[in-house]
Amino acid sequence: MRRIMVCIKRVVDFNVRVRCRADGSGVATEGLKMSINPFDEIALEEALRIKERNQADEVLAVSIGTTESQQQLRTALAMGADRAVLVENETRLEPLAVARALLVLVAREEPLLVMLGKQSIDDDQGQTGPMLAALWNRPQATFVSKLALVNGVARATREVDSGLETIELDLPGVVTSDLRLNEPRYVKLPEILKAKRKPLDVVSLSSLGVETRPQFRVVRTDAPEPRPPGIKVKDIGALIAELRRRGAL
Asked: What element of type H or E holds 204?
């Protein structure tokens, strides 16, 4: 079966202003709206479009997280995913542990393509996709803004520092989506109701038998220092003089 596996993450909605806990133990998420990581939602939308072009037979949504992550998986099912799998885990995982868990699911599901966002908006690490590709020993295309499947090959246009780069990778492989790949569809109420009848399997992280011991320890989380207010200058001469005063010139 031509299956696309899309990995999604539950994060604080991008419209919500977050704050750090007073004791520096992390970001306060209590009572906040949670959503699918925006870049993962873009990856899901692209997978659905590939299926709608009859280039895939099934779209599988996968998430690793708490029981509450079922909410985001149900949203993925409402968007059009055929089924979903939740790897239930209550603790924070590093990207390498996530990639190892996804690799076990890849071995079980044998997807034609694995898609996920280029990064999650809560930690901005952007490591899971490349790590999964390395563990799987399959090619990858990251920061993809355009994707086409042609004769068993994925042709991807990537956004790089110097502009755009187009590469081809043999399938199966890993693709991480950039912001400009597409605009995700709006989920309507009938699709939300239908999603309740779609299969959503729950497995425990411990049952996958992967190493999850953390390599790093977060000592403290603090908000960035507030930026000093700007000033207005009347002309270029005043700007140059101010820059010299501040040692910038």
From this structure: strand 200-204
